[in-house]
Design brief:
With 232 residues, the chain is of the alpha+beta class. It is 42% helix and 18% strand. It has one domain: Gyrase A, domain 2, CATH 3.30.1360.170. A hairpin with a 6-residue loop joins strand 6 and strand 7.
Length: 232
């Protein structure tokens, strides 16, 4: 198989359940309240977000299909607020598809844990980094294939593969959980109440999630931003 090098991460929305109206209906059922106008919905959702009445937001649900490198999944799986089903390296031969940072990836790390600053290297450093990762990926995959050809089980042979190999996963989470994820995994904006310092590659996933969030739940997305990007 031909080796593929990629500096992008693929995120697709498989399904979205719910809407801003569903969140309002879930909130109002507690008092069997009446239907409201769009203007009143904006006010109610803003009230729920500001006062952290979070359960109505759990009635919006996304399912995504994401193809990302293993090191991104290690971070993503730390969010125990989603359901995951991932491609199995035990049961199928993994494809030679590897993540390599693009030329715009900042490479030099400065500062201390929790408050790192990254600055760009020069073109020579970028080229050296890319070629080193590509060469290592090709060599590792060749060893992987040789182990498989020798009859070694897939679950053992995969141990030689690097963490920049891509894996595909279905991710399902409700809107409340998604806002928690975004608050931690997107680059902090001026209106962010709590600063976050995500790795670039997981923020690439989060940015795409947020595009779908904004498109499907525009009133909730506005309220999320107006209230410091804090999950209710």
């Amino acid at each position: 198989m031909d080796t593929i090098f990629d500096s992008t991460i693929d995120v697709k929305m498989v399904e979205c359940l719910g809407s801003d109206d569903r969140i309002v209906a879930a909130a109002k059922v507690s008092t069997l309240g009446e239907e409201t106008t769009d203007e009143k919905n904006v006010g109610l959702i803003g009230y729920l977000m500001k006062n952290r009445h979070g359960s109505p937001f759990e009635h919006g649900v996304f399912t995504f299909r994401v193809t990302a490198p293993i090191f991104v999944w290690r971070e993503h799986h730390r969010h125990r607020i989603a359901s995951y089903n991932e491609e199995s390296g035990r049961y199928t031969q993994l494809k030679p598809h590897f993540y390599v940072p693009g030329p715009d990836r900042e490479l030099i790390q400065q500062g201390k844990p929790g408050a790192y600053e990254f600055v760009a290297g020069d073109a020579q450093l970028s080229s050296y980094t890319q070629s080193t990762i590509e060469n290592n990926s090709v060599e590792a995959y060749e060893r992987y294939e040789r182990l498989l050809e020798a009859g070694v089980a897939k679950e053992v042979a995969r141990m030689v593969l690097p963490v920049n190999i891509f894996s595909t996963c279905y991710v399902t989470m409700n809107l409340r959980s998604l806002m928690n994820f975004l608050s931690l995994r997107t680059k902090s904006l001026e209106n962010s109440m709590f600063k976050s310092f995500p790795q670039k590659e997981i923020s690439m996933v989060a940015d795409k999630y947020e595009e779908f969030f904004r498109g499907q739940f525009p009133i909730t997305w506005d309220a999320f931003n107006e209230n410091g990007r804090v999950a209710p």
